[in-house]
Q: What sequence folds into this?
């Protein structure tokens, strides 16, 4: 799953550091929980969040927050 985010109010002068946090996850209890969340394609105007699972993992809901910080 790829989700695009754009900095609507401001644009950074340089590519920012992006910090991600997962704060909510609802997954099937009969399978192992395996997931990876990464920020990618980071630019002055936005970034992508990539969420990946593998094996028999089944995630129903995932939520979180992000913070972009200027270098």
A:
């Amino acid at each position: 799953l790829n989700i695009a985010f754009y900095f609507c109010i401001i644009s950074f002068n340089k590519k920012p550091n992006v910090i991600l946090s997962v704060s909510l996850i609802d997954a099937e209890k009969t399978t192992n929980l395996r997931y990876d969340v990464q920020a990618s394609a980071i630019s002055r105007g936005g970034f992508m969040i990539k969420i990946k699972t593998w094996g028999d993992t089944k995630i129903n809901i995932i939520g979180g927050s992000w913070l972009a910080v200027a270098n």
User: Anything to note?
Assistant: Strands lie at 2-6, 17-27, 35-43, 46-53, 59-69. The longest strand covers residues 17-27. The chain has a mean pLDDT of 92. The chain has no helices and five strands.
